[in-house]
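Lecture 7, part 2: worked example. A protein chain together with nicotinamide-adenine-dinucleotide.
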Amino acid sequence: MAGRLEGKVIIVAGAGGIGSGIANYLADEGATIVVGDINGDGAERVAQEIVSRGGTAVATALDGADEASAAEIVALAVSRFGGLDGIHINFASLDIARPNGKPTDVLGQDLDDYDAAMRVNARGYLVCTRAAIPALVRRGGGSIVYTATNSIYNGAADLMGYAMSKAPILPLMRHVATRHGAEGIRANAISPGLIVHADLEAVLSEEHLTGYANAAPVKRLGRPRHIAAVSALLMSDDGDFITGQVIAVDGGAFMRP
Ligand SMILES: NC(=O)c1ccc[n+]([C@@H]2O[C@H](COP(=O)([O-])OP(=O)(O)OC[C@H]3O[C@@H](n4cnc5c(N)ncnc54)[C@H](O)[C@@H]3O)[C@@H](O)[C@H]2O)c1
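Predicted complex, written out as structure tokens:
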């Protein structure tokens, strides 16, 4: 497999619907992939899929909010493949976004659910960033990509706690871009609109999906490959003048100033 990411070692942290799409796409561009997820079996399936198509990948169980676990996945990349060139931090605790009838507004949000989401979606992004930076610096620089969400911007009528848990990604990303830019590290966030994959198709009604598609100027639903394609650009040398940015990948559904 030859491509823009040939010779690069990249961690994909969070291997669910979007993450498996990212890992496969980056591998198809030639990257060596280290994939981690709290669901270790899920991560293993993604690695096997890549290997079965001729790519190079290993998997490990990862709790992205745990410092020892984040250090382990970085150590795995370095010991197995000689260094680290990029990390896409993509995992999320999504129970807070699918609250099964519990209130989701500012007065009703369950605080235990909120704390659980903050641990993974906010602290976890900081923990993985801190684990990766020294290895990226040793390599002469690299790329950190974060998966944010449009819910941060749009008032999040039924996703208040989820939006709060993901909003800290943006100041983290801008700080890393500023503080470590001179060492060759770039940091950017992708802000997806609704991105449909098998797990979501199983829980969202046809009416809901059609509504989302029609709300976007392109009149189509997003798929994991749309996020993966932007990740590949940001990981590649083609993206080496892009840093500190939030890139919406949503078919134009939400146009920020
Ligand atoms: N699908 C969408 O429409 C959409 C829209 C906007 C943003 N996002 C963001 O995209 C990312 C991926 O979402 P998805 O739709 O693929 O969801 P998903 O549930 O399929 O994937 C999330 C993955 O994170 C893993 N995870 C949870 N806690 C973890 C932890 N502590 N450590 C490591 N892994 C952990 C889960 O096991 C799961 O595999 C998330 O950050 C989400 O907030 C998704």
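The chain has one domain: 9-248. Residues 14-19, 37-39, 42, 62-65, 90-94, 120, 124, 147, 149, 166, 192, 194-195, 199-200 surround nicotinamide-adenine-dinucleotide (CB under 6 Å). Keep this in mind for problem set question 3.
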